[in-house]
Write a structure and sequence with these properties.
Elements lengths: L2 H14 L4 E5 L5 H16 L3 E6 L10 E6 L12 H8 L2 H17 L3 H8 L9 E5 L7 H7 L3 E5 L33 H21 L2 H10 L11 E6 L3 H4 L8 E3 L14 H8 L5 E4 L12 H12 L5 E5 L14 E4 L4 H7 L3 E4 L5
Parallel strand pairs: 1-2, 1-4, 2-3, 4-5, 5-6, 6-7, 8-9, 8-11, 9-10
Helix pairs in contact: 4-7, 4-8
Length: 364
């Protein structure tokens, strides 16, 4: 008699343990940003959900429940391609570059993609999509896909909250205590810093919204003239790559969830024999000095590199490990305690040694 209730309970669990089908739309060409997004989507796939991805970075090997349905072109490759001159140009007006080069241009380049066009005209029905997940950086035009499919939209910010994102989920701006991501203002702030923070935040938000007005026209060009403005995108949830330990305390609405570090996974990439031996021979420890997957440090001005050389050379016998894609382009005079490699598995390097330190950069 006890067997029947157990069977009924088991059947009930089978009914409630259904998975969802998510559409991931990540058009940004930044590889480092996609790493975080990829980690999120693979985590959902590992839980049994069905994942369809539109991005510039398809998987090299098949991954369970994870399908790349479209590979987007990369009009501007950023992997090991950011020179000092390019960074200076972009940084001179970061809000404009974000809105145009990484916003309007991306919308124009990809909304006409045949896979995207077929998707909105004839969406899958067996099963249909339950929600769409997209990066909310500078291309709100892609939110039109979720609207046309009539599914909830989940946004992901791969860094902190940009000034133009708060109003989308009624997130309090709290400019007296929350610094503008684009300005070099730390917390806690004095009166002058708070005043500067308020004006810089409002400027960035209004300027970005002004520059991206054309995205409404781009959306209507590819999806029809009757679509509402992208300013009316309805975000159900925003996941932000931040953490209270690094970014401080701030009030948040239930629609904003911090997921900092969600993409960090066990790295099974084997270290080369040469790198492993160098690390093991660094008896006094070593510093891992990197500018990430995009910036070419070897293109920095000679004066800047000489400062790095002099500073890092002084910490010997502590050694320095640097990722330099084109080491032959470095000027002469590299200190003997510095070793360069064209590519390094960062997490594996840091986890393999108990005597390593990291010097990294921040690029929004």
């Amino acid at each position: 008699m006890r067997v029947l209730p157990m069977i009924l309970v088991s059947l009930l669990w089978l009914l409630v343990c259904s998975a969802y089908r998510f559409l991931g739309v990540f058009p940004h060409q930044g590889k480092s940003k996609f790493i975080m997004l990829e980690g999120l989507m693979k985590g959902l796939a590992d839980k049994g959900h069905q994942i369809d991805i539109i991005s510039p970075y398809p998987q090299k090997k098949t991954y369970p429940n994870y399908t790349d349905i479209a590979k987007l072109s990369v009009p501007l490759s950023l992997v090991n391609n950011l020179t000092y001159e390019f960074i200076q140009t972009v940084s001179s007006n970061i809000a404009k570059s974000t809105a145009t080069v990484f916003g309007n241009d991306v919308c124009e380049a990809h909304l006409g993609n045949s896979v995207i066009q077929n998707l909105v005209r004839d969406p899958p029905k067996n099963p249909p999509y339950d929600a769409m997940i997209m990066e909310i950086l500078s291309s709100p035009c892609f939110a039109a896909i979720a609207q046309l499919l009539n599914i909830p939209l989940i946004g992901v910010s791969t860094t902190l909250m940009y000034p133009w994102l708060h109003e989308l989920i009624a997130q309090p701006e709290n400019l007296a205590i929350v610094p503008n991501i684009y300005k070099n203002v730390n917390f806690p702030m004095n009166l002058w810093q708070r005043t500067y923070n308020v004006f810089s935040f409002l400027y960035c938000k209004l300027y970005f919204n002004y520059l991206t007005i054309s995205q409404d026209d781009i959306v209507r060009k590819y999806f029809g003239p009757n679509l509402p403005s992208i300013r009316n995108m309805n975000l159900a949830l925003v996941l932000v790559n931040s953490h209270i330990a690094l970014n401080g305390i701030q009030p948040m609405t239930p629609a904003l969830v911090q997921v900092g570090g969600i993409h960090i996974r066990e790295d099974d990439t084997p270290l080369s024999h040469e790198l492993k031996k160098w690390m093991d021979d660094s008896k006094d420890g070593f510093v891992y000095f990197t500018f990430g997957s995009m910036v070419l440090m070897e293109t920095f001005p000679r004066k800047t590199l000489d400062i790095f050389y002099a500073s890092l050379g002084k910490i010997a016998p502590v050694r320095v490990l640097m990722k330099i894609p084109n080491p032959k382009k470095l000027p002469p005079g590299l200190p003997e305690n510095i070793r360069t490699f064209p590519w390094l598995p960062q997490l594996k390097v840091l986890s393999e040694s108990h005597h390593s330190y990291l010097i990294n950069y921040v690029l929004y």
